[in-house]
Design a protein that fits this description.
heterodimer, A: 13-stranded antiparallel beta sheet, B: Porin, 18-stranded antiparallel β-barrel, 18 strands, globular
Chain lengths: 256, 384
């Protein structure tokens, strides 16, 4: 009689164990899917080298500012940006080599080494920090990703990824990303501080195929702690994996 | 036959035009010409000094021309002029007028990927310090001036950049009549060029440099047996970044004759900066300078001490406030300055307030600063 009563309980226990095992197996799989998706995003967005001509439009409460620039990036350590307009900023150059950065100002004809803490400062009054502009490391190097679910964003089916930093020097501890599953491009990214506070939001649009990959040609940054309507960063032209001479990434470039 | 010649002639012209067009395109891509300028206007009110107010305007037109040669070589030219006019108002019946037109920059340069040779009227400046700059050898920039105006020097400058970012500068100066930077004496009128150089190397988490400059100084106003002395300047500057930015800049100026306290000048500035993550980020820079003059080198028995504190805060994406406070320890004088800046695409507004002693004792700035006494200044700048 006792045995007869235990039979359904045994089945229940077996069910629970199977469910638990399935869950234990599926959690790493979800993480693996998240990291695989992050890898796909990296494949689209990252390159050995990039040359970008872009326009940055900073929207204030009443006024806008427009800044155009040309930037050269090699790997994750080398980057040079030259501002082409407006006249006041024209000729200003920023060179980043590993963790060191220099700014050349044509007004003073002087090159100044920028302290590391300055990297958190806004670039030319925009919603982007020097860190945002110059941290070109692959997402897979900085973050572990999990797929949180599926959501519709702007009429498109998106996977929602949660990225948690796995390195100490990440600019943002956590990111939440809405990824277009067709293009494997994030359409919206929320950037969070360690405290959980939402710091910035990036929306990406105008996705175009260039050199065999999909790339968002327009990104809108919004510093959630600052006033204004955000900063649009429009890519006018982009070239991937072109050989860039070494002298570009040296202090020899920091002159008029 | 005539028809054939005519066809050949017409085809030749067409071919020539096509070649010319191609050449023109290539020439066009090898040349560049730019015309820029900066127009500024300002008004000061300084009730507690003799000249109660200033109204002025300045236009700096600038042309640049460059010609690209093969192998990343470039020959370029920059010319700009300082067109300047100012009214000094002592009273309604006593207004002084000052107006000048003078060359501001006028140089030509040959450069390639690692070398640069520049000759003409140019700005030469270097070093790490921001407020008190012992290495201010060839310019007279006031750190509070939003436009960072300073006259250039007539010089030849050669710079070579090594692949590890070490770099070497060599220069020779001539024909500069006024004192430059911290100089106590004019350069001797006899044609003896000033020469010098600088070698900068990367160091752990920063960079370091040694600089040297030599000239004959004219001491005829000292009523000494000799009218000129050899002057040697040595400079050492180090910058590093260890959580906060840290720098040291020091110079020793030595005259080869005994000219009393003026025989040796020593200056040391140490500085630090950090951006505190408060709201939009408060940037703080602090510097302390020790300045001494003595018969003996490195004698700091009689010295002057100055401390500077600068704060910078971006209020919005378009507005910025910065303030500087200097303290003269010897005279117990405080120099205060605050500047609100509003930035548009081509136009900038600056509203400045200052509260300083009427007799100006900040070394290196006393001759040219417009910030003596208490006052306010409004400046509008248009760049094109």
């Amino acid at each position: 009689m006792q045995l007869m009563n235990d039979e359904p309980m045994k089945k229940q226990i077996i069910k629970i164990i199977i469910c638990n095992m399935a869950l234990m197996v599926s959690i790493p799989l979800i993480a693996q899917d998240g990291n695989k998706m992050l890898q796909d995003i990296d494949d689209n967005l990252s390159a050995n080298s990039r040359i970008i001509e872009s326009t940055m439009i900073i929207h204030g409460k009443r006024n806008d500012r427009t800044i155009t620039s040309k930037s050269y990036t090699m790997g994750t350590d080398k980057s040079l940006t030259e501002y082409m307009s407006p006249p006041r900023e024209k000729g200003t150059k920023m060179l980043k080599l590993s963790n060191e950065m220099w700014v050349y100002s044509p007004t003073t004809d002087r090159t100044i080494m920028i302290s590391g803490h300055m990297l958190r400062q806004s670039v030319m009054g925009s919603d982007l920090s020097y860190e945002d502009m110059m941290d070109d490391r692959k997402l897979t190097v900085i973050y572990n990703a999990n797929i949180e679910g599926t959501e519709n964003y702007n009429g498109k089916d998106c996977k929602v990824l949660i990225l948690i930093s796995k390195v100490k020097d990440a600019a943002y501890q956590k990111q939440k990303m809405w990824v277009d599953t067709n293009y494997l491009i994030p359409l919206k990214i929320e950037l969070y501080a360690k405290s959980g506070q939402l710091l910035k939001m990036i929306t990406m649009s105008d996705i175009k195929q260039t050199e065999g990959r999909w790339f968002p040609m327009k990104m809108t940054y919004k510093d959630m702690l600052a006033e204004g309507d955000g900063t649009e960063w429009v890519i006018n032209s982009i070239t991937f994996n072109k050989q860039i001479p070494d002298y570009i990434f040296s202090k020899a470039s920091l002159k008029k | 036959m005539k028809k054939k010649l005519l066809v050949i002639f017409i085809l030749s012209i067409c071919f020539g035009l096509v070649c010319y067009a191609q050449d023109s395109d290539s020439v066009k891509s090898h040349h560049y010409f730019q015309f820029n300028g900066q127009l500024s206007g300002w008004g000061n009110i300084t009730p507690d000094i003799n000249t109660k107010g200033w109204i002025g305007t300045r236009y700096i037109p600038q042309i640049n021309y460059g010609y690209h040669l093969k192998d990343n070589q470039l020959i370029d030219f920059e010319g700009s002029a300082n067109l300047y006019g100012e009214l000094g108002i002592v009273s309604l019946n006593n207004i002084s007028v000052d107006a000048k037109i003078k060359p501001y920059r006028l140089w030509t340069r040959f450069s390639n990927t690692q070398n640069e040779f520049r000759i003409g009227l140019q700005k030469i400046n270097f070093g790490s310090a921001l407020m008190f700059r012992p290495l201010m050898w060839f310019d007279k920039m006031d750190p509070r001036d939003p436009l960072q105006m300073t006259d250039g020097v007539w010089a030849m400058l050669y710079r070579h950049y090594f692949s590890n970012n070490a770099n070497i500068w060599l220069w020779t100066l001539g024909g500069n009549k006024d004192t430059k930077g911290w100089e106590l004496f004019k350069t001797s009128g006899n044609f003896q060029p000033e020469i010098g150089g600088r070698f900068q190397i990367p160091s752990p988490k920063g960079e370091s440099a040694f600089s040297y400059h030599y000239r004959m100084a004219d001491i005829s106003n000292l009523m000494m047996p000799v009218s000129q002395v050899k002057e040697h300047k040595f400079g050492l500057d180090i910058r590093t970044d260890i959580i906060v930015g840290l720098w040291m800049e020091s110079t020793w100026t030595y005259h080869n004759r005994d000219i009393g306290l003026l025989t040796n000048q020593n200056m040391i500035t140490v500085g630090t900066d950090y951006t505190f993550p408060v709201e939009n980020g408060i940037g703080i820079t602090a510097e302390h300078m020790i300045y001494s003059m003595s018969k003996k080198a490195f004698n700091f028995d009689k010295n002057s001490n100055f401390t500077g504190l600068a704060l910078n805060y971006p209020v919005t994406l378009f507005d910025n406030i910065n303030t500087m406070i200097f303290y003269d320890w010897e005279n117990n004088h405080v120099y205060s300055f605050i500047n609100w800046q509003k930035q548009f695409n081509n136009i900038s507004f600056y509203l400045m307030g200052y509260w300083n002693p009427t007799s100006y004792n900040i070394p290196g700035q006393s001759n040219f600063s417009r910030f003596a006494g208490k006052g306010v200044q409004l400046m509008v700048v248009w760049n094109h």
